[in-house]
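Suppose a classmate hands you a notebook page containing two proteins, each written out with its sequence and a corresponding row of structure tokens. How would you begin to make sense of it? This section walks through that situation. The first entry is reproduced here exactly as it would appear on such a page.
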Amino acid sequence: MKNWGLGRLFIAAMMSLVMLPLCAAQEDSVPAPEDAKAIVHTQFDALFTSVTHQLTNNQEMYLSNPVAYYDFLTSTVINLWDSSSTTRALVGKSHYKKLSDQQRLSLIAAVDQTLIRYAFEGLESYGGQVFRVADVVVNEKRGMGWVQVLMESPIIPDINLDILIKRNDANAWQAVDIRVKGITYVAIKKHKYREILEEQGFNALMDNLTDKNTDFFKAVCAGANNPELAGSAPC
């Protein structure tokens, strides 16, 4: 699907945020729906202003120094993305429940690395796009919602991308999926995840993800041609 080139750029934007938390206001009581929507809108609007700034000013440095970009991503992704929910959605609840605690942790880590890989792939596609929040829909009772982001580009038509957000037990809003042209990342990828898991088993799924990520980062680090990067993740 050609729009997922843009989707990977969007993930790059999502993963390339400054250190700002996606947390609801610190209130003793749960905010009313209107307040939650305003809180989410304000926070994501500030975040995507920072996204545009980060990609505009640091793209070349990150392209030449994969370790710096990797460090930046790993220092922000934990607060930003609920990888456990994304992983559970990819393999399905029934499969996820059957995994041991260690298997879950390993698979979540592999999904994290896959999202980071997408962020690296998307970084190369950045060409001056500006991201801003266009709309927010929050279902306070269910603790879920969507943030619609407009990607304004000087080289291609503008496009709307959506972030599915979920409120966790700490009352923080985190991303769990993205949607491009009505189709989500999980909807596209879940069939492959489940097919491998059902037909070949957990180890085969882990090998599939790990091999792709390892091969990609090996090529990225070789392209950087900087021996000083050796030994530091992802090199």
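The notebook's second entry, a different protein, reads as follows.
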Amino acid sequence: MIHVSVESSWDGDAILADIERRAHDLARRLADRVAEDAGARCPVDSGKLKGAIQARPKGDDFEVVVALPYAAAIEEGSTRNGTGPRPFLSPALQTAYGEMPDVARSMGLRMATGGSAPAIPTRHVPTAPRIPTNKEVLRV
């Protein structure tokens, strides 16, 4: 009779924790890149818009916010003011999506790649857009 015993030193919990930590770091880096690129692309008058673009944690995720009541009107245009769209946030998102594999690779991660970047949805701008209040935030 032959008896075989296998011992493993594989620590699945530690591996999963490392994957979660790396994914969290990747999300943070990409959010920072989006905020930086959006700041470089935004139209500058007083500098308030550029200064209001932030990447910040939201639970286990990150979000890029522009906490100004007129940010959406600049990004999407405003029929009230007769201004056309001057997108700064959506192009920054598209760029970050394309850079994601390179950022992951720089962190020692491998990503499955393929396909094209998804279209970044924009809100429908009605004829008379409602300008967000000071408490509202443009979230992406």
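A careful reader of the second entry would note: The helical segments are 12-41, 48-52, 71-76, 89-106.
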